[in-house]
Inverse folding.
């Protein structure tokens, strides 16, 4: 069993080939970081154009690196949501063209499910049920994964995701955004004093597992303004005093942003145990899970709660084709896939895209019959 995974839901064009036993034969990512830096965010039309320009090459490179041709594949897996529909469409079109030409089944993939399930590729011991904290540019999700395709959403963000907050704060602090903002804030935070500014922790009064980052972002913006930090002056040109003041803000923000994750995870573990007492793992995935401070702090939480922490390596935490191919393998093995599309599919064929697609059902604390 060999599956090609294609991912174009946001700003990265990615493809990978993975074998049924979890062996990664290739992994290719073409990122749009230069566009992000220039325009300060993902502009859907521009992102779509970039995906269209590189998709053929990215897929070809993935096949070449795996030393395979499309004829050798068992199926094609492709992200169909959630994400920007213009962008998703590029990947789905490519997947259907390939599948149509080579008579391959197609597996439509949920991007966030893929972020979670890739943990099962790196750790064969990870069985259902398990918990997952998915932290990325567009999502903050606490999930109880009961079985393949059977998820309970314990918490989500009521406004922004943590990755979005990292990216905005990187921009306001004048950091180098050539990669995404997260790693830049993490690096600068190491120079700062995390206790220097007492930002207040979000949603303290809400005894649930939801997240909010909009208020913390505002607190940080006000701190930046009151210290006269000018984002137009890049950090590389800042005076040492200016630099250390930016570092204090980065560190103080990071402490509270992650404290919010810790508090929510602790409660979610208690909730999850009421439904599935046998859980052993908390999986932490999505781009922000590559952050070392996040990993260290959450490791303490799970130890206290007698669980094990499982974070995929950074290249599998940020968007990648491997997670899509692997999730395709999981579903394919359960017989969940679509038949090969017709090779001569009409140009105006309407694809099954799911730009907004919740992962599982919501759990309301106290409702013991939550499925
Ligand atoms: P989603 O998965 O919600 O659709 P996405 O696919 O754009 O969003 P990912 O690629 O999973 O997001 O993650 C990107 C996010 O992760 C960005 O916001 C980026 O700043 C953040 N990120 C990456 N590395 C780090 C880090 N070391 N520290 C903090 N944040 C990070
Ligand atoms: Fe993602």
């Amino acid at each position: 069993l060999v599956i090609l995974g294609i991912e174009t839901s946001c700003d990265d064009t990615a493809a990978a080939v993975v074998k049924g036993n979890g062996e990664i034969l290739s992994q290719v990512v073409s990122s749009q970081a230069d566009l992000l830096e220039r325009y300060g965010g993902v502009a859907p039309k521009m992102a779509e154009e970039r995906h269209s320009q590189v998709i053929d090459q990215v897929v070809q490179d993935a096949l070449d690196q795996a030393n395979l041709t499309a004829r050798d594949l068992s199926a094609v897996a492709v992200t169909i949501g959630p994400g920007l529909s213009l962008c998703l469409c590029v990947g789905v079109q490519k997947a259907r063209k390939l599948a149509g030409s080579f008579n391959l089944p197609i597996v439509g993939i949920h991007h966030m499910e893929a972020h979670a399930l890739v943990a099962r590729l790196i750790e064969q011991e990870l069985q259902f049920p398990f918990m997952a904290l998915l932290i990325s540019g567009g999502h903050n999700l606490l999930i109880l994964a009961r079985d393949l395709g059977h998820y309970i959403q314990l918490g989500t963000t009521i406004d922004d995701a943590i990755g979005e907050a990292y990216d905005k704060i990187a921009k306001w602090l004048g950091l180098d955004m050539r990669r995404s903002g997260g790693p830049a804030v993490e690096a600068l935070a190491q120079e700062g004093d995390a206790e220097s500014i007492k930002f207040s922790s979000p949603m303290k009064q809400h005894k649930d597992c939801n997240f909010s980052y909009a208020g913390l972002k505002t607190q940080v913006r006000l701190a930046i303004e009151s210290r006269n930090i000018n984002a137009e002056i890049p950090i590389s040109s800042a005076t040492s005093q200016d630099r250390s003041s930016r570092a204090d803000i980065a560190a103080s923000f990071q402490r509270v942003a992650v404290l919010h994750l810790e508090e929510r995870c602790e409660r979610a573990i208690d909730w999850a145990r009421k439904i599935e007492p046998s859980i052993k793992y908390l999986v932490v995935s999505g781009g922000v899970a590559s952050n070392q401070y996040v990993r260290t702090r959450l490791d303490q939480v799970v130890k206290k709660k007698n669980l094990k922490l499982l974070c995929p390596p950074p290249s599998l935490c940020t968007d990648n084709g491997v997670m899509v191919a692997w999730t395709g393998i999981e579903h394919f093995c359960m017989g969940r896939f679509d038949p090969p599309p017709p090779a001569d599919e009409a140009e105006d064929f309407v694809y099954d895209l799911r730009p907004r697609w919740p992962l599982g059902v919501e759990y309301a604390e106290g409702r013991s019959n939550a499925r």
Observations:
- The pocket of adenosine-5'-triphosphate (ligand 1) is lined by residues 9-10, 83, 111, 136-139, 163, 166-167, 180-183, 186, 286-288, 290-291, 318-319 (CB under 6 Å).
- The first strand starts at residue 2 and ends at 7.
